Amino acid sequence: TLPRGMPVPPPQPQTLPTPVAAPAAPAASQGGGNRWSVQVGAFASENLARTTANQARDTVATMGTRASVTPVRQGNATLYRARVTGLTRQAADQACSRLRTRGACTVVAPDA
């Protein structure tokens, strides 16, 4: 503390370090390549899931896509996820835009 009557010196400006931008992630991890998919439903019937996945794949009609049906336990029941796989992020977005006219569609990220 300063003695009484002494003027308080003005605060000195502080210089902050210049922020450094974080390195950009590689394009492959951002895009995911052809590992994106779209889910067009989850059904109690494996046959209905397969039919729906095949119809969605045919609607998308992109080279390298596959219809995929995956069983998932939900409590005491099994649901079958109907997906179209082998898409890029952009193709998955476009596929869902087209498929939503027929029902639900969700873009699924790689490894989800």
UniProtKB/TrEMBL annotation:
Native source species: Neoroseomonas soli
Annotated ranges, domain SPOR: 30-112
Pro residues: bias regions: 1-16
Gene3D superfamilies the record matches: Sporulation related repeat
Coiled coil residues, start to end: none
Protein name: SPOR domain-containing protein
A Pfam family: SPOR
Record region (Disordered): 1-34
GO MF term set: peptidoglycan binding
Lineage, uppermost ranks: Bacteria, Pseudomonadati, Pseudomonadota, Alphaproteobacteria, Acetobacterales
Composition bias, Low complexity: 17-28
